[in-house]
Please model this.
Amino acid sequence: MCKRDYKTEDFVLDPEFQKWVLSPDTATKTYWEGYINQNPGKHKDIMLARKLVLNISRRTKEVEESRIAETWSNIDQALDKMQMNERDKPVIPLDSYSSIRRFESQKPIGYNRSMQFYRLVGILVFAFTLSFLVNLFFPQPVPRIVEVPVVYEEHFAPPGVKSNLTLQDGSKVILNSGSSLKYIKNFESHQRVLELVGEAFFEVAKDENRPFRVKTGPVTTTALGTSFNIKAYENESIDIALLTGLVAVDHESTSSKSVNLEKGQGLRIDPDVDGMKKVAFNGDKVLAWTKKTIVFDHTPMPEIRRVLENWYWVKIHFSNQPKRDLELSGRFHDQTLKNVLEGLSYSARFEFNIENDQVTLVFK
Amino acid sequence: MKIQANPLSCVDEDVLWQLLREGERKGLEGLYRLYSRELFKYGLTLTHDEDFIQDCIQEVFIDLWKYHLNLQKAENVKVYVFKSLSHKIYRESKKRSKWKWEELGEDSFGDLSVESKEGEFISVQQEKNLQIKLARGLEKLPIRQKQAIQLLYFEQFSYEEVSKMMGINLRSVYTLAWKAIASLKKHVVSLLFNLTFWF
Model:
């Protein structure tokens, strides 16, 4: 609302007007004097508003200190009671003897104690015999283990889409196209376990009591407040690159102890070869995908196919097999599929045809 | 238990809130010490039934404890606590149907004192009569209008904060306050009219 249309009520409710009336400073003074000059018709409203601002009152009653203290002690007692109830809950007599004892106290006093002992023995013998017979004639029911239902949260970045996730513990994840991440909702109390298929970059929120574990097939990467990238597509090597902090990597099949990675180190686990190999990596290259950039560096053709299929959500067919040792390099920032293929086709000598989501490559 | 000067009272409310969220009773106690006087004062302007306000405040703090695991990181702890009390008073007053808001304005001024905003600042000549009239007028307003004025004008919350506390949008807060001022204005106008008539 424009201040020119102000009515008395609006003046009263304007914090700037209140300030001018109650504790004027030069700025408010200049402003409102200027205002009255320009809007002489508002003079009466302003007079009335000023009177209201100065005199609006409420009846108050100072509360006595004793009441404030009394209130707190009531709250304190209620809290004690709540905690007591929580403590009392699990105490439930389970053994038969204490149950029997409970009934005993209800019997009239002066009851013959030795009689009672024989009764007790009789009851126990009867109970044991009965349970023995029941066990003998009825198949033993399989003990059912009641499991706390575990709710999994699953994220999938469809081909063509990368998703940014913030997990409940504050960790950040960028999930590459065609990758999926699965974990127990809110995590467990002693660890944070995630299962990854595909590629993701993790920025782990620090929580020393709950290690952060990423499972990729047989390989588990454990971190405590770090950032790292994992690439684990099916039938390809698993590549772990550590950007900051410290992680430990365990492999199920190798009996060797876990491998610790330090900042700037990478690890490659080949599916065919049993074992892990420390490798150097180029941080720019590893994280290029998080910045809309595709980087190929002596990359074999099948991997190029997987990257492009996920990135652009297309299906790529080879009409004839490329040479086995064909490896390509190139860097593409925010490019269309056509441009990428054109760029690659010069060095790889292939022709391509894009039809909707179907791409065909013909190697010369 | 006696409330004494306490090292916690100088601690920042966000720290206390965090302590509470972690299940530390000290956090709750600190918040109580920080806000209890203001909460009582605010509650007692809505009704003069001290026992009722005491019950409401007790329940607000017991609830804070009961649900401390679900508490969010509060952006503004004071707003949250005032909001809880407002809701509690509003709900409880509806429950006690025999209890009527209208009755409250009529009792004598007795042990109650009149507080105007002006009192907090430089002393301009006070118009006691007008102030008492306006205080009475304020008490006769519908509960929501009264709440809006109390929070905006006397408790000095911003329009945004009041809108969060009352669970209504900014526009509605302004409308409620506007209506309240419009009714209060009549008292001033009639008084002015009387004066011009006399002189």
Observations:
- Chain B touches chain A through 59 residues (CB under 8 Å).
- Chain B is about 65% helix and 0% strand.
